[in-house]
Amino acid sequence: MSASVSFAGARSPFVTGLDPDVLAAQRQANLVLAQMPQPDVTTPEGLAALRALTSPAQPASQLVPEDITVDGPAGPLRLRVFTPEGDIRAVYLRIHGGGWAAGTPEDDEAVNDHIARTCQVAVVSPAYRLVPESTIAVQIEECLAAARWAAGQAGPRFGAGRLLIGGISAGGHLAATVALRLRDQGDPAFALLAGALLDCGAYDMSYTPSVRRSDHTTLVLPRTWIEGLTTLGLPGLDAEARRDPELSPLYADLTGLPPALFTVGALDPLRDDSVFLATAWQLAGGHADLDVWPEGAHAFTNMGTPLAALALQRTTDWIDALLA
Question: Which label site among 29, 199, 225, 238 has the fewest CB atoms less than 10 Å from its CB?
């Protein structure tokens, strides 16, 4: 074998060196999460309960967000925009989560405000229509419209020349599909796309092994919720149809995509989605950083724990390095 051959080694994606007190605090938070009710999300009553669970009170933001209404594929689309003072480095389309059936931009108010101020980026969060009143296919089109607005206004409104895209949970899924759609359609917005930040998204709508191993004891996102919410969002589609690359990014051609940061908790039933897509992203020639956080449940980054604060710092550091 040639002496010039080198190997990547066995670097683990697990975040290491964390303070034991940080992990202990997360374990305590997980004990509370284990007591969460698990309503039947396929019923109107259960869906209402889910929406109440996923919309906690948020602290007041330091920036004053602006609500802008733009034309969308299903009617008027509200965008919540955080604009920091001073020179803006990029526009970040950040899509909220909630299993496609719950959530609003206001649920991410504190995080969006922090990212906007810390990274000097304008954060745009679309209020896409929720299932079952809408479908995931329509949500993708709405978020695509939001991405085009953000890209089109990057220079004229914000004085920026770069676009970031990302989201948490269902928002991570929608962000990945929108990035692919922009590339596949040769959209001018894709030329501005500098990076993707994908937090605990679902990237295989027919379910990865970690989803299939989950059950009613799984924190935050039990298997019945995953199955019920995907069925609501993809009505009438069997497993093969759900693997359509336009719905499941894991099955898409991933060449030519920008650098990405994948964030997921070790206890998340969607863990394999991030691990698999990050690996495929790299194998397609792209740059992908994958962080698996010990003791992290699904969407732990929005929970306000010390572990969440470290993950948020990692996110802002990654954005800073990307835009430097």
Answer: 238
Q: What mean pLDDT is predicted for residues 292-316? A: 97
Q: What are phi and psi of 192, to 5 degrees?
A: -90, -10
With a cut of 60, say whether residue 193 has pLDDT above it: yes
Mean pLDDT value across residues 194-206: 99
Task: Give CATH superfamily name and number for 20-58+67-323.
Answer: Alpha/Beta hydrolase fold, catalytic domain (3.40.50.1820)
Q: 251-265 in b/e burial notation, b at 16+ Cβ within 10 A?
A: bbebeebbbbbbbbb
For 147-168, what is each residue's pLDDT tens digit?
999 999 999 999 999 999 999 9
- Domain boundary assignment for the chain: 20-58+67-323
Q: How far apart are CA 130 and CA 128, in angstroms?
A: 6
The chain-wide mean pLDDT, for the chain, equals 96
Query: What would the mean pLDDT of 191-220 be, rounded to a whole number?
Result: 98
